[in-house]
Structures are given as structure tokens and as C-alpha cells.
Amino acid sequence: MTTQPDNVDTVLANGLLNLWYPICPSGFVGRVPVSLRRLGKKLAVWRDMEGKLHALEDHCPHRGAPLSRGIVLGDKLACGYHGVEVNCKGVVVSVPGSPGCKLEGSTAVRAFHVTERNGAIWLYNSAENVDEPPPLTLPEELISDEYSSFLCYTEWRGDYRYVLDNVMDPMHGTYLHKQSHSMALGETTAKFRVRDTETGFVFEKEGQRDVNFDWTEWADTGVHWMRLEIPYPKTGGPGGNFIIVGSYTPITPELSAVFHWRCRRLTGWQRDTWRFLYKNRLEARHWAVLEQDREMMEEMEPDANQREHLYQHDMGIVKLRRHMRNLAGQQIESGVSKRGV
Fold first, then answer.
1. What is the pLDDT at residue 2?
2. What is the 3-state secondary structure (H, E, C) of 47-60?
3. Domains in the chain, ordered, with CATH?
4. What is the reported pTM?
5. Which keywords has UniProt assigned to this entry (predicted)?
């Protein structure tokens, strides 16, 4: 039996609807269907002969067998259990064992729009089948030719909302990452403020900029993303500050898909120099920093956020949590959350 998402925590645990989410690196999906659990759903994702991506709920409408175990017929999947064919819009186009039965012609499977950008596959988490999704609007670091980036993908045990909290907490860089080559400087105390933007808000230290991990931005452009900058020493190569863009997707309530794009603004020979330097020297250091975050998050109890004593440094976390809960409440009130089941 499917649990109806009738409360805010259930909606948030599965991910808000009618938003774009990154679901996996591009290399995860080829012409053999892949089964992925994401956003409270089990998905079948595949490429047709032209390389175009398609995604359906991984559930045959006949008996519930996984469509991902079937055969690719272009933009259709033929269930491996009884041959039922479902196209990429979720319409049953053929029931070989019982031609002409009422299942044929019905839209019986959830279909999802997917696209590929910056080394990741993105899925529009629609509440119901839609003909056209809204555009995928990403920050300039991921769309402008003036930037170069590397995708860092990992999976962390725990609720994805703890990852959001971690990124919306600049002060932890001063302590958890104090041995890092890029986060060893700056004050160990700080006051913070919140500054609203057209798409979200910035949570920043007062009186300190471009010294350490000094601010985080959260934005909603039809996809939720976060951005921060970390100053680089000269040994980090050309390009100014090191920029991180993050987006986070629930796999299950106990597992999170964590996407970070590591970006710098540069072109020409400077881009080539930095990319070489990154792969040969800097990447290992960045993974070491990320591992510190992962270990801390995975060792936190699932109910840790129910036994907190927050202070001024946590204003950004409180604001983001309240905003996310308000968005979930709006989906419940409008009935969107139930249509997404």
C-alpha cells in the first residue's frame, strides 16, 4: 500500500514536486535500462539508439514487474515478464498476450522528463505526466563559457536535508576544515546576516569576505541549488576564488545523492592549466575535505535535528528549513502532493 503524503515531513523526505533534480551522473545510463530509486520513486531510465534519454516509473501496469528488466524498443520499453510495451509518455501501446484489451491505449505509467547538463542527468519531478516541463535554469557557473567545472558525485547515508544544513553553515569550515589549504584563515568567531536575492537568499559573515568559507547562497530557479566561494592561495592556479555549486536529491530517507560542481572562472590557456592542476594535485585535497563532511553527517543520529540548541550562526539553517516547510505545506494544501504519489 502506498502511503499518502499528508504531512510536511513526508513531502520533504521524498523531495518537493514540480522541480528539477539531478538524479545521477551522465555515465550511469546507457542503452540498457537502469533502475534508480530517487525522490520516493523507483525509476527506469534509458537511452534510445540516438542517445536520447527517457524515464518511466519502474513499474509495469500489468503485474508490477520492473520495466527496467525489459527490452528497449527505441522510446518504448517492453516488459520482460509478459511483453507489455509502454512508450516514453507512459502509454501502453501493446499487450501481446491479449491484443485489444482495455490496458492498450491507456496512460498507465508515470512518465518523467529528463535532460542532460554539466555531466549529470536531471529529472523534472512532476506531480503528474506533463507534455512540456519548464526550462532547467542553472546558475551562470554551469552555463557560461567563461567558467570551467568538474562534477563531484557521491552518496551519503542520511537524509538529504542534513546536506542542505551542512552547506548552509559557513562557520563549520573554520573548525571542521581548518587544516585545509583553503580554509585555514579568518576569524574563529563571527556574526552573520541574511540578505535576500531575487531567487532566494545569501547567508553571510559580517565584516569578512574572501578569507574563508564566508557565505552561502540558496536559490530557487525551478531547481534548488546552493553556491559558495572559497578563496584560493596562489598555489591553486589561475582563476580567482574556487566556486562550488551544489544540488541534493533524496534517494531514500536514509540515503542522499550529493552533487557538487567545482568551478572557476577562466578561459583559454588558463582553463587548461587549471584543469590539469586540478586533476593532478587539487582534486585529492577537495575529496579529503568532502570526506570530513560525509563522516560528520553520517555519524549524526537521524533525530539529531530534534535535539538542537541553535544560536546566531544557525540563522541561515532556520530560514531555509522554514522556507522548505512552507513550500511543502503549500503543496499539501493545493493537493499537488497527493497527485505526485
1. 43
2. ECCCCCEEEEECCC
3. 20-124 (2.102.10.10), 140-327 (3.90.380.10)
4. 0.93
5. 2Fe-2S, Dioxygenase, Iron, Iron-sulfur, Metal-binding, Oxidoreductase
